[in-house]
Automatic annotation (TrEMBL):
Taxonomic superkingdom: Bacteria
Lineage of source species: Bacteria, Bacillati, Bacillota, Clostridia, Lachnospirales
PANTHER family on file: S-ADENOSYL-L-METHIONINE-DEPENDENT METHYLTRANSFERASES SUPERFAMILY PROTEIN (PTHR35276), TRNA (MNM(5)S(2)U34)-METHYLTRANSFERASE, CHLOROPLASTIC (PTHR35276:SF1)
Transmembrane segments: none
SUPFAM superfamilies found in the cross-reference section: S-adenosyl-L-methionine-dependent methyltransferases (SSF53335)
InterPro entries (alphabetical): MnmM_MeTrfase (IPR010719), SAM-dependent_MTases_sf (IPR029063)
Stored Gene3D superfamilies: Vaccinia Virus protein VP39
Species for this entry: Mediterraneibacter gnavus CAG:126
Name of the protein described by the UniProt record: rRNA methylase
One Pfam family of this chain: rRNA_methylase
Amino acid sequence: MPREKQNFWRPDKEYKGRRGYADCGEDSAVSVLYSGDEKGERMPGYQITEYCHRMIREHIKEGDCCVDATAGNGNDTEFLCRLTGADGKVYAFDIQKAAVEHTRKRLEEAGLSERAKVILDGHEHMENYVRETVSAITFNFGYLPGGDHQIATQADTSIQAIEAGLRLLKKGGIMSLCIYSGGDSGFAEKEALLSYLETLDSRTFLVIVSTYYNRQNHPPIPAFVIRIKEERGE
């Protein structure tokens, strides 16, 4: 059954057409909780978008390099560009041409085009483009509303991308993962991602998995990986 017809966290009219299921950007559709098919209520101050961005802000300074691994409509790309400033660099990846075009247009309208490189390629290939260590990497799994629902993140390439991102992540850097479940491949991907995160070496990475514990209908799961030491040395 298509996600729009299910009783999940869904976009309201204000957010239609933006990356909701798969983006935890500044104005993402998943920031609205729906308890029924037609009506819902906002959760001011407790939106997944705000929660993720608060965590990310603590790990970025001007001039840093960051990665938006799932560009979508450019919400997180713009957010990272503003944090890293004029001397920073942001790499954004998406496999959909429409998403890349939307992101580039958003950055152009915001006057931020020079701060980002938007790449039409799978995020599992990020190491082919990013040569420096990075302070933050954002992942928002799923598909792009308004796009082809058959084009969605898959567990195998998602884990490959996480592994690539962790190799790029510098000490003190953070990886943000917005994990969704329900419908399509969401449940299988969620379980695979959480199982993978559990295997990360606790001496090298701090893994934080949050949950909207008393919310029903499969709310999104914000997770964070922070590198606390280098692979070798300290």
